[in-house]
Specification:
It is found in: Membrane. Keywords: Membrane, Transmembrane, Transmembrane helix, Transport. Pfam families: MFS_1. By secondary structure, the chain is an all-alpha fold. It has 18 helices and no strands. The N and C termini lie far apart (49 Å).
Length: 427
């Protein structure tokens, strides 16, 4: 049975090679900078100190700003991907990381670190979450519905494998070369996508090109409002999408809080450096690969996406393997089944927008809470108290997941009925 599944998975992955290869390179390039960024920002903003409240607050502020704008940007990108193609949107999103890391490659002074935070915030607004959402929509274009969950598990497995490779590179590369190598890999990705990736969507025909600029702007606002109403209608009309939105919100609320402060916490509490960060992140990635590529694809046909999702949430709550069981692939699979073929980008984008709300709320509490409990004025000795609070949010996510009732795929008649509800976003 496993052998047959492997052959089927290989056939399904074959048309996705030109998507997955540049994405893997992109993820490697981004991940290899993670372990060194804590040292770079702490050294620049708080020289000679192991704890840097300023870096924690700026990181939290960055995530809040990103969350605010992503609520609008991510659904827009999802709809644009439905209407004008996956390829141009992927090119845009994967290119945004080049400038921020180029700044740190030039200089690691306080001024350049501030410039990095500004440009990286803009990069996150455009690319954080949207790359995966658009990629999932691309997969939905070329993979039949019954095999999407398995393919999504392979994609998240490749995501984890890329993180492992990125952390291994970061472990053995000298710190002064990490940003240069990362930039070279990041530049390679859009070039490869331009040359080899095949478009799966026929772009919509633009009309009303001679409208005055003001009228065009007004029309875009009106269509954006109609699009948001349409996306909201899609989600509210589906119990599955409503439930998965709640799951995504509470999970992101907790996990975003942990992710934003974890490395700073480890540096302050245990004195971790770049090499130790790389080693622990590598071990987490290896555990994630085993679960995603070996265990979960075999278990999924037996128990279904809901059980896998709940298991992943339990694993996240106890944090035994950090991200050892990846929840994302099963969430995307459930969303993909609940949305029509013409609304894949909108549904993924809406749930991504819900995650953005959580990711902007989380730092507002987690950043000051972490800074407080790492300081000498903490009310009691529990440096990881903010992480405990974040885990409580994931417990709420688990309760929502337990109530989830995945729906069958929409039939052709249902798709035809909703296919022409809204006009294109840009015309």
């Amino acid at each position: 049975m496993v052998g047959r599944w492997d052959g089927s998975a290989a056939r399904e992955l074959k048309p996705l090679v030109h998507l997955l290869f540049p994405l893997s390179v992109h993820w490697i390039a981004e991940e290899m900078t993670v372990s060194v960024l804590v040292d770079v920002t702490t050294s620049a903003l708080c020289p000679g100190k192991s704890t840097c409240s300023q870096a924690i607050y700026i990181t939290g502020l960055q995530q809040t700003i990103v969350g605010i704008f992503k609520m609008v940007v991510l659904p827009v990108l999802g709809q644009l991907a439905d209407e004008y193609g996956r390829k141009p949107l992927l090119l845009l999103t994967v290119s945004t990381s080049i400038v921020p890391f180029a700044l740190l490659a030039i200089n690691e002074s306080k001024e350049f670190v501030y410039a990095y935070y500004v440009t990286r915030t803009l990069s996150f607004i455009i690319s954080q979450g949207s790359i995966f959402c658009i990629s999932v929509a691309y997969v939905a274009d070329v993979v039949e519905n019954s095999k999407r969950a398995a393919v999504f598990s392979w994609i998240t497995g490749l995501f984890s494998a890329s993180h492992v490779l990125g952390n291994i590179l970061a472990r053995f590369l000298p710190e002064e070369y990490i940003f240069e190598v990362s930039i070279a890999l990041l530049v390679f990705c859009p070039v490869y996508i331009t040359l080899f990736l095949t478009e799966t969507v026929t772009p919509t025909t633009r009309q009303d090109q001679r409208l005055p600029i003001f009228n065009k702007a007004l029309k875009v606002v009106q269509e954006r409002y109609n699009s948001m109403r349409h996306a909201l209608t899609i989600v509210l009309s589906s119990p599955t999408l409503k439930s998965i939105s709640l799951v995504s919100f509470f999970y992101e609320l907790g996990m975003s809080g942990i992710s934003n402060v974890l490395l700073y916490y480890l540096k302050s509490a245990f004195g971790f450096n770049k090499n130790q960060f790389s080693e622990i992140l590598t071990m987490v990635g290896i555990g994630s690969i085993v679960s995603q590529l070996i265990v979960l694809p075999v278990v999924n046909p037996l128990v279904g996406e809901k059980v896998i999702l709940c298991t992943a949430l339990v694993a996240s709550i106890i944090y035994a393997l950090l991200y050892g069981l990846a929840w994302a692939s099963w969430t995307y699979a459930i969303i993909s089944k609940a949305a029509s073929s013409t609304d894949q980008g909108k549904a993924q984008g809406f749930v991504g927008g819900v995650q953005s709300i959580a990711s902007l709320l989380s730092p507002l509490a987690m950043s000051p809470l972490t800074s407080w409990f790492l300081s000498s004025t903490a009310p009691f000795n529990c440096k990881g108290f903010s992480i405990v609070c974040a885990s409580i949010c994931m417990v709420a996510s688990l309760f929502c997941a337990l109530m989830l009732k995945p729906e069958a795929t929409l039939n052709a008649d249902s798709q035809e009925n909703i296919e022409s509800i809204e006009a294109p976003l840009l015309s």
